[in-house]
Every structure is written in C-alpha cells, then in structure tokens.
Amino acid sequence: MGKNTGGEAETADQFLDSTLESVDSAESLVLDMAEKAGFEEEDLHKIGMAVRESMVNAVVHGNQYSAHKKVHVSVSKGTDRFTVTIADQGRGFELSDVRDPLADENLLRHSGRGIFLIRAFMDELQIRRLSPAGTEVKLVKYLGRK
Amino acid sequence: MSVKLSTRQVGDVSVVDVAGRITLGEGSSALRDTLRDMVSKGQKKILLNLGEVSYIDSSGIGELVSGFTTVTNQGGQLKLLGLTKRVKDLLQITKLYTVFDVHDDEAGAVRSFA
Hints:
The structure holds 2 protein chains of 2 kinds. Chain A has 3 helices and 6 strands, in the order ββααββαββ. By secondary structure, chain A is of the alpha+beta class.
C-alpha cells in the first residue's frame, strides 16, 4: 500500500480485502484525492458513485467475498485526467453478457445497473480481462471540465 | 450514517420515512425487510418517503424496484414521495422515473391512493 501526496503529482495504490468495508475505504480514498484534484461537489458525487459500483462488482461478483482474493485500487492524477483503476482476481465476465438495463424487458430487474451508471458518471470507462484471472476496470474523469 | 426507517399510518396509507444511505448491505436489506414485512401484514397502500435519502446506489435502486414489483404483485400500490434531486436524476437516467408514481407533497400522495 502506498500513497504519495507530495506536490501536484498524486498517486495511491492499495490492495483491499474483498469486503463491503473495502467499498467504503476505496470511496474515501478516491474522494479525498479527487477533492484535492479540484473536483466540485457534483463531480465528486459521480466519481464516488462510480467507484462504489466498481468496488461492489469487484468484491461481490468478481472476488465473491473471498478472503484469499484482493481488490487492487490505483488512483492517479495526470495533467488532464483523474484515473481510478480497480482490479479483482475473479473469474471475469464478458461485457456482451451484461443486459441493457434500459431495455423494456430489463427495466424491473433487481440488478444489472452498475456498469450502466459507471458509464453515465465517468468520462471514460475501460474494462479488460486480466491474465491469469480477474477483471480490471479503469475509470477516467477529465480535469478542468464542467 | 446508514439508513433509518420508520413507519406511520396516515388513514389507510402506510408511510415509510427513509433517511440516510440506501446502499448494498445494511441499507438495502433494511428497506427490503421493511417492505416485505408490510406486505406480509396485508398492507396494500405504501408510500415511501425518500425526502431524507442522501445517497442511493444501484443496489438501492434494485430494492426500490423489487419492492415495487412485490407490492404490485400482491395487488397493492407502492408510490414514492419527496425525491431529492440526485435520487430523481438516478431514476430518470435508469428510465425508472416513469415506472414509479412520484409525488412531491404528502397530502396529495395520500389522496392519490383513493
């Protein structure tokens, strides 16, 4: 685990347990850095929510609460973007298998809105499978844009 | 603060005042348990007051939807009251705003059940 908050460059890197408490920890870590990066309340809400949804996916669906698996959270502030990467050690999934939550037949489903909300709240979302196992989600919010 | 729920009766309408965060874990399960308990007691007119809900995630949205379908399938009605801007925005982008009957004032909401 590390966190460099010296000067303008800020990065953080943490390996968290696969628990719901880690969802709160990751949200706090990211929001603390996002606030220092200059984001205002509305963007902070969107970033926090995207991180929560990504962490829940990693803990619940990816690592399935396994005590033997970690969630790797990395945060960095670049010159024009704020990036959060969340990686689990689970079996992975195919993005094409995720149902469209806005389709009429899916509107009243209990779950399946997480990735949709992440995409709605961030400027960029990249999802890739890791080798030998796991899924990495990269969330990007541009700096200096309203 | 997680979630705090309290129930009261206004005529034949059961009002659930919800405050705090409805997120995966304690928050969403508390809401689920409360609604299931009300349905099991035969309450058919349920008004969910979300005026003090500061935060809701996709799990919380899922509980609202499940509560809606559970109550509707039992021949009842579940309506929403006092959405904050953030909750309203969330329901709009998930296309659920038109699924729920949403009200801004309690008296009007209670009358709408009649």
